[in-house]
Amino acid sequence: MKKATEYVYVAAGVLFLTFQTSCQPLRPETEENDVKLFGLGLNEKNKLAGAGWIKEPLQLDREYVSPEEKARHEEFGEIIRRYQIERTQHNGGIKRGFHAKQLGCTLGRFQVLDQIPSELQQGIFMPGTSYEVMGRFSSGLGTIEKDAELDVKGLALKLLNIEGPKLIQSKLPNENLPNSRSVDFTMTNVPTFGTKNSTDFMEFAKAAHDGNKGPFLLKHPIALQRLAGSVTRKIGDLALESFWSGGASRIGPKTMKFRVAPCDGRKQFSPTRKVTENYYRESLQEHLNSESVCYDFYVQMQLDPYKQPIENPQEFWKESETPSILMAKVTFDKQDLAKNDALCERITFHPWNTIAAHQPLGEVNRARLFIYHASSEERSKSGIQFDPPNF
Ligand code: HEM
Question: What is the residue with the minimal CA distance to atom 29 of ligand 1?
Fold first, then answer.
C-alpha cells in the first residue's frame, strides 16, 4: 500500500513541477536571473552555491568547511550502521547501507587516451596509461528490492595496482585500515546528486528506511525534480546507461566532476520485455554475452565557483558553460557475471579510496568519508578490504 502511495506522490510531484517550471523557473537559468536574484546579497548568492553561511565571495577550487560538520557526519555513520542491522532479515544478511543490491560485478580495462590537455595530466590521468578495473553495478536503496522498484542505479569503478598513499588512511588515521593499491570512482545514473547537503540526504535515508519517501519528496521539490527524470525513465540495457559523479573532486590543483557515457554515443532504449525481479542484471549479462560493454570517461572543469559550485552537488554543471572533456575508455569484455559476484560483495568501493590528486570535495563528499567507513565496517566484520585478492 505504501508503495502505491509513493507512486501517487511522485506522479503528483512531477505534475506539480512540470506546471510550476513551465510558469516560473525553480532556480535561475540565465545570467539575467542570476543578477536579479544575486542582487539580494552575497550571502544569498552563496546559499545557492550551498555555502550560505560563508560571508566572503566564493573562490575557484576552494572548499568551505563548516566547523561543526564533522560531529554530524560521524553521527550519520552510526545511523546508517543501525539501519544496516535493522534490515538484516529483509536483506538476508548485513548489506551495504545504500546500494545493497548488486546488479553485476565486472572486470575490464581503463585506458587513458594518448592525448589529453597538459593541465589535465594529473594523478591517474597520464596519457596512454592503462589500468585493470573492476566495476560494480548496483541499485541505490539500502534494501534488496525487485527491479520494478523506482530507484537510482550506481556504477562504482576500482582501478587496480595503483601504488602510493591513499586519502582514506590519512583522513581516518586512528582506524585499523589496510593499505590500498586501488583508486575508486563512484557514480549514479542521475546527472546531479539528489540533495544539496548530507543532512537532507539523511532525511531521505530515514524516509526510505521507514518506507515512506513520498512526504520527503514533496518537501524537497528540487530533489524530486532531480530524481524524477532518472528513476522513472525505463532502462532497456543497464550497460547503455550514463553515470555521473554528483560531487566534485580534485584533478591536481583544479576541480572536476566526472562521468561515463556509452561509447560512440549509443542510446538507451525501453525494455522490450517485462521488468522482472532481476531484469537489470539479466540485461547486463545479455549484453556481455554478445559484446563488450564500453564507456567514455569524461571530466568537466570548474570554471566559475557559482555556476559550478563545489559545496552544492544538486547544481548541474551545464555543458554549455563547462564542456565535457574525453579522458579515457572503460571496457568490460564478454564475461560471466556470476564469477565475480562474491568479489564485489566483499570489498569496499569508497570515494576516499583515492590519491591526493583526486581528493573528493564538498560537504556531501566529506560526510561520505565517515558514512562509507561505518557501512563497510559493519558488513565486513573480519576487516575492511579495498583490494581484491590476487591483484
Ligand atoms: C550524503 C550522501 C551519501 C550517503 C549518505 C551515501 C551512502 C552510501 C553508503 C552507506 C554506501 C555503501 C558503502 C559500503 O558499504 O561500501 C554507498 C554506496 C554507494 N554510493 Fe553513496 N552515499 C552518498 C552520496 C553518494 C554520491 C554523491 C554518489 C555518486 C553520485 C554515490 C554513489 C554510491 C555508489 C555507486 C555506491 C555503491 C558503491 C559500491 O558499489 O560498493 N553516493 N553510499
Answer: 187
